[in-house]
Design goal:
Blueprint lengths: L1 E4 L1 H18 L6 E4 L13 E2 L27 H6 L29 E3 L2 E3 L1
Parallel strand pairs: 1-2, 1-3
Antiparallel strand pairs: 4-5
């Protein structure tokens, strides 16, 4: 079975389940490819894959395999000695942030929730 899995999901989703899977299905050989880009699973010849929820195509069958991930914005105390602490999401534009890129699709757009409101 050929799987396509983002690197983050290998450790957080796949690895904890591998022992159980191997015991339950000893005749299944897993061929796991790690790739953080958005790949068309079928066109690339994969049997299944793990994608983050917002990247699921409408014609795909999706099954939840983990709880929602809640990323955090963090900085060291030393960084804040020379930079003001952000008070709202737009303040982050003035900071040196590490961004995540999903392959060739561009830099990930951060989303911040406050009650029922979402800022991007």
């Amino acid at each position: 079975m050929r799987l396509l899995v983002p690197r983050l999901a290998v450790m957080t989703v796949l690895a904890p389940k591998l022992g159980h899977f191997a015991r339950e299905y000893p005749d299944v050989v897993l061929d796991v490819t790690t790739d953080d880009s958005r790949v068309d699973l079928v066109a690339a010849g994969f049997d299944a894959g793990i994608h983050f929820g917002e990247f699921i195509e409408q014609d795909m069958v999706a099954v939840r395999v983990s709880k929602d991930l809640r990323p955090a914005i963090v900085a060291s105390p030393g960084y804040f000695e020379s930079h003001p602490k952000p008070k709202s999401p737009p303040d982050l534009r003035a900071h040196r942030c590490i961004n995540y890129r999903h392959g060739s699709t561009g830099v990930y757009r951060w989303e911040f929730d406050k009650g029922r409101r979402t800022d991007r």
